[in-house]
């Protein structure tokens, strides 16, 4: 099974432009209740982000502007994809190592999270991540 799981969002629009709405309680494109939203922008050239996994947190990452390359790793396989569409999000499940690379100058990466911030949920060492999935 692929680690790359896309969530497609309904696009609305007319001659004025396009709009994507994410609403709680409607037919949900996001497969969890959203408890936290944040975005990454103005990432300096050559800087990569992420390099962690989560015990319990699930996320949907959406590149609302520009592009970046996402790498997902479950300890057995490692897959990568380019993110460049505001109409689809990448579902990142628990216990999946994530890295973000090659941010364009105009990249804005929006992240919807299933839980509030909790430092104890992070696994920041790749070797500890591998130990955790093999335990």
Describe what you observe in this structure.
The chain has 135 residues and is mainly β. It has a single domain (5-134), classed as Jelly Rolls, CATH 2.60.120.10. It is built from one helix and twelve strands, in the order ββββββββββββα. The strands form three sheets. A five-stranded antiparallel beta sheet has the order 1-9-6-11-4, with no helix packed on it. Strands 8-7-10-5-12 form a five-stranded antiparallel beta sheet. Strand 2 (11-14) and strand 3 form a beta hairpin. The radius of gyration is 15 Å and the shape is globular. This is dTDP-4-dehydrorhamnose 3,5-epimerase. Residues 4-131 form the Sugar 3,4-ketoisomerase QdtA cupin domain. InterPro entries: QdtA_cupin_dom, RmlC-like_jellyroll, RmlC_Cupin_sf.
Kindly summarize this structure in a few lines.
By secondary structure, this protein is mainly beta.
Number of strands: 12
Number of helical segments?
1
Instruction: Please state the average pLDDT score.
Output: 94
In what range is the share of β-strand residues?
Answer: over 45%
Helix content: under 10%
Radius of gyration: 15 Å
How many distinct domains?
A: 1
CATH C-level name: Mainly Beta
Largest sheet composition: 5 strands, antiparallel
Largest sheet, spatial ordering of strands = 1-9-6-11-4
Q: What's the topology here?
A:
Layout: E1 5-8, E2 11-14, E3 17-20, E4 36-41, E5 49-54, E6 59-65, E7 68-73, E8 78-83, E9 88-92, E10 97-101, E11 108-113, E12 122-123, H1 126-134
Antiparallel strand pairs: 1-9, 2-3, 4-11, 5-10, 5-12, 6-9, 6-11, 7-8, 7-10
InterPro entries: QdtA_cupin_dom, RmlC-like_jellyroll, RmlC_Cupin_sf
Protein name: dTDP-4-dehydrorhamnose 3,5-epimerase
Organism: Pseudomonas pohangensis
């Amino acid at each position: 099974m692929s680690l790359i799981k896309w969530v497609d969002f309904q696009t609305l629009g007319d001659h004025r432009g396009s709009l994507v709405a994410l609403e709680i309680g409607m037919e949900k494109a996001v497969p969890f209740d959203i408890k936290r939203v944040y975005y990454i922008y103005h990432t300096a050239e050559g800087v990569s982000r992420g390099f962690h996994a989560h015990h319990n947190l699930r996320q949907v990452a959406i590149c609302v502007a520009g592009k970046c390359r996402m790498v997902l790793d479950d300890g057995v396989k490692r897959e990568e994809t380019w993110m460049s569409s505001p109409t689809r999000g990448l579902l990142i499940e628990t216990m999946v190592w994530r890295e973000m690379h090659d941010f364009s100058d105009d990249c804005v990466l929006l992240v919807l999270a299933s839980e509030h911030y909790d430092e104890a949920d992070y696994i920041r060492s790749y070797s500890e991540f591998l130990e955790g999935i093999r335990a």
